């Protein structure tokens, strides 16, 4: 890719200089846009391009930076990983952003390689996992000494095609100031000459012609003529569109959600397009983010939200390393202006969620992949003493970054790490969705500051958990409360065909979702009818359950309709298959006329052979069951390692892990003789329960929403 568009020759001695002489042609000749400002040549092959930091420091990315505090190796199993501190005030925060990166080992290695080789990167992952932080960290690793200023000059041959020139950073200001000084000197000379001529005309008209009125009229015409002529002199001052004079690191431009003009550059509209009142075209040129990011990093999050035209132009800029600026509005006078190509040799970091790949222009993705890397951002990381120490440093970083929060005590740090474990949803892991965790830190700090506390304590963290609830959690709590008001929630006794299922609203809000089943005579071929705005995966789950029911029942159900209702599923409907055992239990209860324990709630997927498979969100579902007054909850055996409920709920509810539908019925159904008969019959048909070691340990299935 091209580094710049400058073709000026360097002086023989290689020195950088600015010629004190004025531009060569005051009348606006073809050479007027030229300056004697040399541009240093690029690095020779084999030269070390540098990395913007001390030698070897590019290797010291965030996850390799150790905590500067006393560590007790015999106490590494505690929540602080052996850190011997009383508060985060004792933890030293690294100066560079690149050293503050937590986790994301694979992404860290990719960024390190991409920074060294100037490669593009596409990061895909959940929000808040550190994509923008890694992009900013990458800008610190790129060479700073190659930065350039970009000037746009008036083109005397064609005013609608301004000329572009690049110079070393810091030289652009000097060139503009030199042009302004020359313009000021010319204007002074013109003014001096104008007043002399006006004085001569007035003297002639007064002394010789004897008509002072005619002299005043002539003086006014001369004044206007000189003023009009001076506009052409001012128009020759170049427009500095990219100024990196004060830039200490490689540029970082966040173009997330930018419209076409902000991304690609634009030319302002000029309502006065003639008559000597117009603004010169080169003065109306505005740089885009791609031009400001030259020799640096261009970061675009949610890349798929860019319109197709912008993505196509972005492809050209990546491929060519330069992109001319024109007016983005077709009806504006700026659309007539097209500059020479402007350098845009940037490293692009595109980011987004998984859906970004679906809606992204395939050719743009091909260019990023062809000239760089694709990386998936981890949601969780293994819970090790080293990582727990880094989470303590993360809290110290958030406190220092905010600047208004009291430092956290050791017990407060431990509570935040416990919350990180809980939000991970996997045993032995910590969440890497650090933006949300940072929100908890800031809310807790705000509570402590409002109370004029010297430190943020564990009590402040516990209060923050309640105050920082998501909208989904607040809706879920309100939904549960309304159910209690209208007695829609049943938590005692036995009811035929009714089961307390469990679901998740949003990402972290569990609710109890009752499922009811009724068997009725059919007017035609029997069918299974499910209501509750079931989405595709939920409908497939009902079909799988139907296979077990048909094989299980002694009765001829071809002449019966089985109605399944997800009670008050809401406008969002039901998605996922984690209500499979709930549906199966409700239908079997309705077919056999055996009641289901209403103090019991359950969640789990189901295979066509009756095996209970793991699901997602078990922690939030268990807590929801406890809040609504259930005494017991059934979960898949494979999910026992994912349970990390709050301490307050541990004594409120009993957790029963199961691996087969027969175990579910054994726990849920009423009565001994009838229940034993049903369970025995089901075992003979579907096969005995799986051994605990053979339970499918695959990825969790989506839970109902």
Give the strand order of the largest sheet, numbering strands 1, 2, ... along the chain. Answer: 18-19-17-16-21-24-25
Rough outline: elongated
Roughly how many Å is the radius of gyration? 36 Å
CATH level 1 class label of the largest domain: Alpha Beta
Low-confidence stretches: 1-63, 688-705
Tell me roughly what share of residues is in helical segments.
25-40%
**What name is given to the CATH topology of the largest domain?**
Ribosomal Protein S5, domain 2
Corresponding CATH architecture of the largest domain: 2-Layer Sandwich
Question: How would you portray this structure in words?
Answer:
The protein is α/β, with parallel strands linked by helices and 705 residues long. The chain folds into four domains: 148-170 and 243-376, P-loop containing nucleotide triphosphate hydrolases (Rossmann fold, 3-Layer(aba) Sandwich); 180-229; 381-468, Helicase, Ruva Protein, domain 3, CATH 1.10.8.60; 488-689, Ribosomal Protein S5, domain 2, CATH 3.30.230.10. Helices cover 37% and strands 15% of the residues. It has 20 helices and 25 strands. The strands form eight sheets. The chain has a seven-stranded mixed beta sheet with strand order 18-19-17-16-21-24-25, with helices on both faces. α18 links the parallel β24 and β25 (654-658). α3 runs antiparallel to α4 (212-234) and α12 (434-450) crosses α13. The longest helix is centred in the first third of the chain and has 39 residues, at 171-209. The radius of gyration is 36 Å and the shape is elongated. The relative contact order is 0.09. Mean pLDDT is 79; it is low at 1-63 and 688-705.
